[in-house]
TrEMBL record:
Official protein name in the record: 3-oxoacyl-ACP reductase FabG
Pfam family name, one: adh_short
Ranges for domain Ketoreductase: 3-186
PANTHER family the record matches: 3-OXOACYL-(ACYL-CARRIER-PROTEIN) REDUCTASE, 3-OXOACYL-[ACYL-CARRIER-PROTEIN] REDUCTASE FABG
Molecular function terms, GO-annotated: oxidoreductase activity
Biological processes per GO annotation: monocarboxylic acid metabolic process; steroid metabolic process
Family listed: Belongs to the short-chain dehydrogenases/reductases (SDR) family.
Length: 246
């Protein structure tokens, strides 16, 4: 029987690579996005998954920082998948990249709500459908969840929270056959990194032991491993070129 997945922030960067990998693995995919510009990307990915990978797909617009929007997203996906759900990839995330004194409460709350609270919303809504049939949640954390990063206090707080959420849900839902793991990427070339100061980025990249910035495919490969590793739960795997060794 075919398996079904929901991915948040599934049209760009790491999300796009993971969406395509899910298709390669034979999953039908509900691809979430939120911005107007990603609507066309989502539609193109749906076509690609159907035509090139032979799986079913649906694009669903929703701001995952909002519980009601998550509820609508999960309902739309479940209606499409006749109620069966096997995988939730919590990937949506943003960063402010701002010193803490200048950071405004509404801005740090947006980072916390988008990066962490969204994963609580989505897990809360999906877990009733994931229990008791060998299912998985994969959360995108960050090396910022493992170590401190200058100008990323809100982001680091959110991503450390993601790792805590991952461990606690893994423990609580292991008896119900749901594995919960996190990926903590290092520097990976996406729009998120293209948005930061490129001179600073080059200087930072020079300190990566493997000597280069990673590609979204590195993270999609890690997701594939997690989905196919039946003894793995409660773990955070960090593909980061040796940049952080916790
Ligand atoms: P990206 O290219 O900027 O993509 C961010 C994604 O998150 C987009 O798909 C975006 O959707 C989605 N998103 C943002 N706010 C959302 C919301 N309120 N509701 C639904 N979707 C929302 O960045 P990326 O590098 O691929 O980041 C993906 C994840 O990896 C994030 O959690 C990020 O923190 C994490 N990460 C990235 C790196 C890195 O170096 N790139 C390192 C560590 C961790 P739209 O397309 O609709 O805007």
């Amino acid at each position: 029987m075919s398996k079904n997945a929901i991915i948040t922030g599934g049209t760009r960067g790491l999300g796009e690579a993971m969406t395509l990998k899910l298709g390669d693995m034979g999953y039908n995919v509900a691809i979430n996005y939120t911005s107007e510009r990603s609507g066309a990307l989502a539609d193109a990915l749906v076509q690609k998954l159907k035509e090139e990978k032979g799986v079913d797909a649906i694009a669903v617009k929703a701001d995952v920082s909002d519980y009601d929007a998550c509820e609508q997203l999960v309902k739309t996906a479940l209606d499409h998948f006749q109620g069966q759900l096997d995988v939730l990839i919590n990937n949506a995330g943003i960063t402010n990249n701002c010193n803490f004194i200048d950071l405004q409460p509404k801005d740090y709350m947006r980072v916390i709500n988008t990066n962490l609270v969204s994963m609580m919303h989505m897990s809360h809504l999906c877990l009733p459908h994931l229990v008791d049939h060998d299912s998985c949640i994969v959360n995108t954390a960050s090396v910022g969840g493992l170590v401190g990063v200058v100008n990323q206090a809100d982001y680091c707080a959110a991503k450390t929270g993601v790792i805590g959420l991952t461990r606690a849900l893994a423990l609580e839902f292991a008896p119900r056959k749901v594995r919960v793991n996190a990926i903590a990427p290092g520097m990976i070339m996406t729009d998120m990194l293209r948005g930061v100061n490129q001179d600073e980025l080059r200087a930072l990249a020079a300190t990566i032991p493997l000597g280069y910035i990673g590609e979204p495919a590195d993270i999609a490969g890690c997701m594939e491993y997690i989905l196919t590793a039946p003894y793995l739960t409660g773990q955070t795997i960090s593909p980061n070129g040796g940049f952080v060794m916790p």
